[in-house]
Amino acid sequence: MIRITRPHLADAEARAVAGVLASGFLVQGPTVARFEERVAALTGAPHAVAVSSGTAALHLALLAAGVGPGDDVVTSAFTFPATANVVELVGARPVLVDIDPTTYNLDVAGVEAAVTARTRAIVPVHEFGLMADMEAIGHLASRRGIPVVEDAACALGASQSIGGQRVPAGAAGDLACFSFHPRKSVTTGEGGAITARDAATAGRLRRLRNHGLEPGPDGLDVVEPGFNYRMTELQAALGLAQAERLAWALDERRRLAARYDEALADVAWLQRPHEPKHRTHAWQSYVVLLEDGIDRERLIARLAERGVEAVRGAYAVHRLRFYRERYGYAPGRFPAASAAHDRALALPLWPGMGTDAVEQVAGALVACR
Predict the structure, then answer these.
(1) What is the C-alpha separation between 140 and 226, in angstroms, rounded?
(2) Cα(113)–Cα(334) distance, rounded to whole angstroms?
(3) Active site annotation includes 277
(4) DSSP H or E stretch at residue 141
(5) Please, what is the average pLDDT of the chain?
(6) What's the CA gap between 179 and 281, in Å, rounded?
(7) What are the angstrom distances between the C-alpha of 93 and each of 119, 137, 172, 327?
(8) CA-to-CA distance for 314 and 127, rounded, in angstroms?
(9) Which among 47, 184, 253, 319 is annotated as catalytic?
């Protein structure tokens, strides 16, 4: 079976984790701080705060941005549910915007139309590893005085040209959130990080991830209610070893994506991924959009019979029961997101997979049509 993903784990990871076990520091030791420094360096952000998951990162980032009850947060109608869920969890309302059907990223004109006096944050999603148009979104947010929180869960290593300068994912917004799930280019099993522009915000994020605790005159004191969103030393050690091979992993993903492009170039019943000029894709996933009328679930089952694991791309938030019932969305409310919800298909893509496997997947896809 050619799996949808397979984390590339080597002896370096085993040695790093063994070193932590031998040290006796399993939590709140020096390895997490080193990993944070590495994430900051990789993203070009002044500060990085490691947490237990990408969802935890989004949750804390919204709190740090001042989002709370009565606020609106403008975000993508097509994403993993965590993006909208954390908005609900801080008491705010997710205001969904449709996507550009060629990139799966936020439609900038839709963002402009969705912003009101209640908008407290804009959360662009860098879907499948391709950054949203952060230059346009940044200009809009700056004019309106609205913080931008990048959902960069899939986008470590992605970048784009902003004002003539190459800006990595994680350095384009006021805050940015990453995931280190096994489908990502750097994995810690579960884990996440938030990048921030200033030390005060980073300090608050560290406090919030650790129950709201800070040193006081009588020992630790709770400054504000927080959470246990800490990353462990074991996770950080794994992440440090993974980060050493990030450049290689990104090159591998780009090479495999290019081979998919070649192998599927003449397949008329699907839309291949699009990488706009001035943006560099991180290729967390290779997602095709099937022609209307193709039964995706049947296709997934037939691919599995041929030894290929394929999965849906992501979710149209307004089609999920909680959001559909809470806000009364009609199924066709966001047509591009709805089309992607029904027809987007992610194909296997992971470092070390090899171009022969790409050929096998492409051949199976055509045969199963």
Answers:
(1) 32
(2) 14
(3) no
(4) helix 134-144
(5) 98
(6) 16
(7) 9, 20, 24, 10
(8) 9
(9) 184
**Residue matched to tokens 């005159």:** 217
Domains and CATH numbers, the chain: 11-243 (3.40.640.10), 246-368 (3.90.1150.10)
Whose tokens are 């089309």? That residue is: 339
Task: Work out the pLDDT band at 287, boundaries 50, 70, 90.
Answer: very high
Dihedrals phi, psi of 345, to nearest 5 degrees: -135, 120
- How much of the chain is in helix, strand and coil states, percent to nearest 5? 40, 20, 40
At residue 50, the pLDDT reads: 99
Where are any strands of DSSP class E within the chain? 47-51, 72-76, 78-79, 93-97, 119-123, 149-151, 159-162, 165-168, 175-179, 192-196, 213-216, 219-222, 270-271, 279-280, 286-290, 311-312, 315-316, 344-347
Compute the distance between CA of residue 167 and CA of residue 144 in angstroms, rounded to an integer: 22
Hey, what are 151's tokens?
């959902």
Is the pLDDT at 369 greater than 90, yes or no? no
Q: How far from 61 is each of 81, 83, 117, CA to CA, in Å?
A: 16, 11, 20
Provide the residue type at 197 as one letter: R
- The predicted-structure confidence for 217-261, as pLDDT tens digits, reads as follows 888 999 999 999 999 999 999 999 999 999 999 999 999 999 999
- Report how far apart, in Å, the C-alpha atoms of 293 and of each of 60, 122, 339, 364 are: 41, 34, 11, 19
